Amino acid sequence: MKLILPIESAAEIEPHLASDTKVVLVDSDGNLDNDASDAEVYLSWFLLKSTTLHQVLAAAPALRWHHAPNAGVNHILTPTYLERDLTLTNGAGVHAIPVAEFVLAYILNHAKYLPELHALQAEHHWKRGLAIQELTDATLLIIGAGAIGQEIAVRAKAFGMRVFGSRRHPQELPNFDKVVGADEWRSLLPFADYIVVATPLTPETQGLIDEAALRSLPNHAYLINIARGAVVDEPALVRALTEGWIAGAALDTVIGEPLASESPLWSVPNVLITPHCSGHSPKVKQRSVALFLDNLTRYQTGQPLRNIVDKQAGY
């Protein structure tokens, strides 16, 4: 069997391969170090460019299975990609813990007035009387109760929060007080103190958090986006923050990354912007490699693969 492996993770994977496995290495620009015409399996890596993806596809006509370490695969499902009959698996779950920890950090940052306290310290100003909140009994609405959403719910429950969620196929889940279907979450917006966007970007979710959704939130609500920037209508969000429809937002992702220096998001009130880093952790690479190796064993032994992507649904 021949595999195409990214140079970024080959050193961790190759020691676990059978002696008769052949490997072709590919760099971030799509340059292959050997003939890939008979390769069956392709492991891509983070920050995959469409040009790199298309170069690999062209060089590997026998490809059958592609594993991407990302949870979101909207950047992979190009028209060129969809022409190929490939099984696609993703890295859903490998980022869930660090992202969930970041979400609680965003919530606590807002509830405990940490930016104001940092500013007061810098000014050598001892001030009391800030409207510091606790999380007990606050309501958290998670749009997208998948692997990441469920890890967020675990941590939110530990703080005594009421947790609502939405997913395409609603079902009872641990740590959620209520889980509704994809069309029902809007009815929960007026009750949300915090709302987390954790849904994949698909044609159906693009612009999902629109003006109507933002106007339905209470004016003390705080929005957190750790999914994809395009799930949120950015002009509507800028208006919501400028005009005080909501109390603030934490954005780990935006439509255009890196965020342009002239973007109004840099300077609208009460926004925390982080550079798409909520999923970062040394353990993510370990989990990504372990997931791929487990799936490779499954592939070689004819067992069902984990994390198969429904390419029509987009996740």
Helix share, percent? 25-40%
Shape: elongated
CATH superfamily of the largest domain: NAD(P)-binding Rossmann-like Domain
The structure class reads: alpha/beta
In angstroms, what is the radius of gyration?
21 Å
Low-confidence stretches: none
Helix tally equals 9
Q: Note the run of SSEs as H and E.
A: EHEEHEHEHHEHEEEHEHEEH
* Annotated CATH topology of the largest domain: Rossmann fold
At CATH level 2, the architecture of the largest domain is: 3-Layer(aba) Sandwich
Beta-strand residue fraction: 5-15%
Q: What count of domains describes the coordinates?
A: 2
Keywords: NAD, Oxidoreductase
Protein name: Phosphoglycerate dehydrogenase-like oxidoreductase
Family: Belongs to the D-isomer specific 2-hydroxyacid dehydrogenase family.
GO molecular function: NAD binding; oxidoreductase activity, acting on the CH-OH group of donors, NAD or NADP as acceptor
Give the SSE map.
Layout: E1 2-6, H1 10-13, E2 22-26, E3 41-43, H2 50-59, E4 65-67, H3 79-82, E5 87-89, H4 96-111, H5 114-122, E6 139-143, H6 147-158, E7 162-166, E8 178-180, E9 194-197, H7 211-216, E10 222-225, H8 234-243, E11 248-251, E12 271-273, H9 282-301
Parallel strand pairs: 1-2, 1-3, 3-4, 4-5, 6-7, 6-9, 7-8, 9-10, 10-11, 11-12
Helix pairs in contact: 4-6
Family: Belongs to the D-isomer specific 2-hydroxyacid dehydrogenase family.
Domain D-isomer specific 2-hydroxyacid dehydrogenase NAD-binding: 104-278
InterPro entries: D-isomer_2_OHA_DH_cat_dom (IPR006139), D-isomer_DH_NAD-bd (IPR006140), NAD(P)-bd_dom_sf (IPR036291)
Description of the structure:
One of its GO terms (molecular function) is oxidoreductase activity, acting on the CH-OH group of donors, NAD or NADP as acceptor. Residues 104-278 form the D-isomer specific 2-hydroxyacid dehydrogenase NAD-binding domain. It comes from Cylindrospermum stagnale PCC 7417. Residues 52-309 form the D-isomer specific 2-hydroxyacid dehydrogenase catalytic domain. With 315 residues, the chain is α/β, with parallel strands linked by helices. It has nine helices and twelve strands. The protein has helices at residues 10-13, 50-59, 79-82, 96-111, 114-122, 147-158, 211-216, 234-243, 282-301; strands spanning 2-6, 22-26, 41-43, 65-67, 87-89, 139-143, 162-166, 178-180, 194-197, 222-225, 248-251, 271-273.
